[in-house]
Amino acid sequence: MEALQETELLTRTTRKKIKESPFPVRQNKSRSARPRSSSRKMISYKEAGVNVHANTRWVAAIATAMKSTYDGRVYDRRHGGFAGLFQLNPVPKARAGYRNPMLIGCSDGVGTKVLLAIQMNRLDTIGIDLVAMNVNDLITCGGEPLFFLDYLAVNRLDPARLLSIIEGIAAGCREAGCALLGGETAEMPDLYALNHIDLAGFAVGVVEKTRMVDGSSVRPGDVVLGLPSSGVHSNGYTLVRRLIEKRRCRLDRRYDGLDGPLGEVLLRPTRIYVRAVRAALEAFPRRKAVVGMAHITGGGLKENIARVLPPDCDAVLQSKAWMRPPIFNFLQSLGTTNTEMVKVFNLGIGFVLIVRPRCAAGILKVLKEVGEAPLEIGRIAPGRQSVRLV
User: Fold this and answer.
1) Nearest partner of 304 among 269, 353, 232, judged by Cα
2) Angle 93-174-359 (CA atoms, 0-180°, nearest 5)?
3) Is the dihedral of CA 40, 44, 45, 48 positive or negative?
4) What distance in Å separates the CA atoms of residue 79 and residue 62, rounded to the nearest whole number?
5) pLDDT tens sequence across 8-43
6) What digits encode the pLDDT tens for the residues 240-280?
7) pTM here?
């Protein structure tokens, strides 16, 4: 919850920026599809549903949040720029440079978890979710996130209401060690219902070519390690919402087995695994100890781990090696099958590393030293690129 707590540090300062001058990087290309009136009365953009003045206050308000993610590699001395600039090889006192760099790019969103956040009128966690869903995908290649871009689409631009989303994105970027380099805010009253929003994110990273992790060298005998999730993360919320609506569950009620009100448990942000993965990779700089990684998102453990297996290997997971968080047992009790649960949710394991047997103990130790609670959850066996839970 470190990233979530950090958002509170920016709130007071950033909200004062709403009335200040605009920040140069983030642009708002507002759009409206309303037809031209047949009367002679002149119609303004604001009357059509788009408030340009609110955008001026908005870009000023988010400046502090964005700058809190910068290091020496971000070039932020321009005025009125239309894009952000980032140095790949850093300036002195920053990170080491790259000899043969390969860039990594990915894009993802938060999905219908946004609807739950709107229903609860709590938008501070979904910004962290947005960063996590992207950077956790990016690091499976063995690289580091460099910078992040966001796209926020709204019915109406309300800076005071939406500021917590950007603060959450900034907190996620700080935790992931990447810069919030820019983004886009689109006010589209004809496309989105009142108070509705949508989020998308884009992450760019880099990996030294010789240190890239792609799963091609996974072989029988390798050890499968799992890192715990914080709960449902950001997948399967269409099913989650259907289940709680069907059973008329109250989001403000604390049900048996849960450690908080249902809505609060469901809105817990996706964990960011960048620090843990970087520590595991750097623990063995002269040899490849980590040979495969998977971010457990939609498709659950089976589909996501299978994506990094060679055609002649299976992953055999011990289902009793970890305990499912209570939220998953609660959701299943509302009316779905265990087969569906395995197919949709992470069930308590948010990220997986496949490591050489001789390095497993060392990597487990390193992961614990950075605050993780890693578990040995399985082994690689001869097979046909499938995942078996036994």
Assistant:
1) 353
2) 80
3) negative
4) 16
5) 545 544 555 544 444 444 445 545 445 555 557 786
6) 999 999 999 999 999 999 999 999 999 999 999 999 999 99
7) 0.85
358 Cβ contact partners less than 8 Å away, ≥ 6 residues apart: none
pLDDT tens per residue across span 338-370: 999 999 999 999 999 999 999 999 999 999 999
> Cα separation of 100 and 90, whole Å?
15
**Distance in angstroms (rounded) separating the CA atoms of residues 296 and 278:** 18
Contact between 96 and 180 (Cβ < 8 Å): no
Q: Contact 146/205 with Cβ under 8 angstroms?
A: yes
CA–CA distance, 155 with 162 (Å, rounded to integer): 11
What is the spatial distance between Cα 222 and Cα 159, in angstroms, rounded to a whole number? 50
Sheet containing 387-389: give its strands across.
290-295, 349-355, 223-228, 375-382, 313-317, 387-389
The DSSP code for 192 is S
Structure tokens at 73: 């590699």
| Helix-, strand-, coil-residue percentages of the chain, each rounded to 5 | 35, 20, 40
CATH 3.60.15.10 fits 2-30+49-211, yes or no: no
Structural Rg of the chain based on CA atoms: 22
Listed in order, strand segments (DSSP E) in 195-335 are 197-208, 223-228, 290-295, 313-317
Q: Are 234 and 266 in contact (CB under 8 A)?
A: no
The 3-class SS string of 269-318 reads: CCCCCHHHHHHHHHCCCCCCCEEEEEECCCCHHHHHHHCCCCCCEEEEEC
Q: Where in the chain are all domains bearing CATH 3.90.650.10?
A: 223-389
Q: Is the pLDDT of residue 203 over 50?
A: yes
CATH placement of domain 223-389: 3.90.650.10
Residue 65 tokens, joined: 């949040």
Query: Which residue spans of the chain are classified as CATH 3.30.1330.10?
Result: 2-30+49-211
Closest CA to 196 of 116, 108, 128, 124: 116
To the nearest 10°, report the CA torsion of 32, 34, 35, 37: -110
Question: In whole angstroms, what is the distance from residue 294 CA to residue 115 CA?
Answer: 27
